[in-house]
Specification:
The chain has 364 residues and is of the alpha/beta class. It is built from 15 helices and 9 strands. It has a domain of 228 residues: Aldolase class I (TIM Barrel). Strands 1-2-3-4-5-7-8-9 form an 8-stranded parallel beta barrel, surrounded by 6 helices.
């Protein structure tokens, strides 16, 4: 067992990694062990608390009141994706994962969470613990987007066969979700692609009928030894946007989720549907992603924000909240990449004791 693992097992705060410097984020400092254990205890003793919290939370009147969105993606483990950067199982420690998720959700300007049922329910349980102390939950006035298709497990022979194995429309309605996320990876060499296209079309119609906004991720892929890799050239993204926009019997409540790439102004011009950018694999320098988001937001009126995961929550040696604040400023205020970089420095480490302070507040 590593020293960090031993510290976690003992309920102590793991020491920052050697060489991490002031920029390192200590997840155990933000989400105290007592809160994680209380969450686990709720799962055993009061599993219905997640549903109760879903019913108690305040929902926003519109999905995107100002027409732009920054949403955290946390649906990776269900598709057997636990890698972040060079760490193969970085997302495999649930205490540390949830700490990073909450760190981002508490940043001003972050509009919500997209995740699979397990993570949504865990955040609802943590929100329930907060509501007992303050009368407010972590997801009040924020979006909950449910992830549907996670059957295309990473690294498997059936990876392109993205079956619906997570949320259903009925399940999202019961949990009072605001929208659904679907994904279709288009492999011209794999006949399984067409089954996923058909499944997504049916799911889009079902979600719309249930009053759920759909966020559809789509891109063409190339085969590689590491599995399907997204094509981010403008021509491929334009083609993917056209396919995605044609799925289902209506696009009135559909947004697209497309990777950023060079020539994004051409991609933005390929559809009238609102586009959210995704971050993809973790970059060595997280601020590169901020530069790309700033460029993407200037690409055209259809680009309306980002639905981003590991490049915010698991950026190497960086505070997720600081990156989230900077990304939100790009999305909602149109700041430049350079201004966003300055915000990361200014916000790093702010309010690290947000949850620890609540421990001093008696439960109601």
């Amino acid at each position: 067992m590593t020293p960090e693992g031993a510290a976690r097992s003992a309920g102590r705060r793991p020491a920052p990694a050697r060489g991490s410097g002031a920029a390192a984020f200590d997840p155990a400092a933000f989400l105290p062990r007592a809160w994680y254990e209380a969450l686990v205890d709720l799962r055993v003793r009061r599993p219905e608390a997640a549903q109760a919290e879903a019913e108690a939370r305040t929902r926003r009147a519109a999905v995107a009141p100002a027409g732009r969105l920054l949403v955290l993606a946390a649906d990776h483990p269900a598709r057997m994706v636990t890698r972040a950067g060079t760490h193969a199982t970085a997302m495999g420690d649930r205490w540390m994962l949830l700490s990073r998720v909450l760190r981002v959700l508490t940043a001003p300007g972050v509009d919500g969470l997209m995740a699979t049922p397990d993570i949504v329910e865990e955040v609802l349980l943590l929100s329930h613990l907060a509501r007992r102390r303050t009368g407010q939950g972590w997801l009040d006035d924020k979006l909950i987007l449910g992830c549907m298709n996670r059957g295309g497990l990473s690294g498997t022979a059936f990876e392109i066969d993205d079956r619906m194995t997570a949320f259903t429309p009925d399940g999202m309605v019961r949990l009072r979700c605001d929208g659904a996320k679907l994904m279709v990876r288009i492999d011209p060499q794999d006949p399984a692609t067409v089954a996923t296209l058909e499944a997504c079309a049916h799911a889009i119609d079902a979600c719309h009928a249930a009053g759920l906004t759909v966020f559809l991720e789509a891109f063409l892929v190339d085969r590689s030894p590491a599995g399907p890799r997204p094509r981010t050239d403008a021509e491929s993204l334009i083609r993917a946007a056209g396919v995605a926009a044609g799925l289902g019997t209506s696009t009135a409540h559909t947004w697209l989720k497309l990777p950023y790439g060079q020539g994004y102004e051409r991609v933005a011009a390929a559809t009238t549907l609102p586009i959210l950018m995704l971050g993809g694999e973790v970059r060595e320098d997280p601020k590169v992603v901020l530069e790309e988001f700033a460029a993407g937001m200037a690409a055209g009126p259809t680009v309306r924000g980002a639905l981003v995961g590991r490049n915010i929550s698991f950026a190497p040696e960086e505070d997720p909240r600081a990156l989230a604040v900077a990304a939100a400023a790009i999305v909602h205020r149109g700041v430049s990449g350079e201004e966003a970089r300055a915000l990361v420095t200014a916000e790093r480490g702010r309010d690290i004791d947000t949850i620890a302070r609540l421990e001093e507040t008696p439960a109601q």
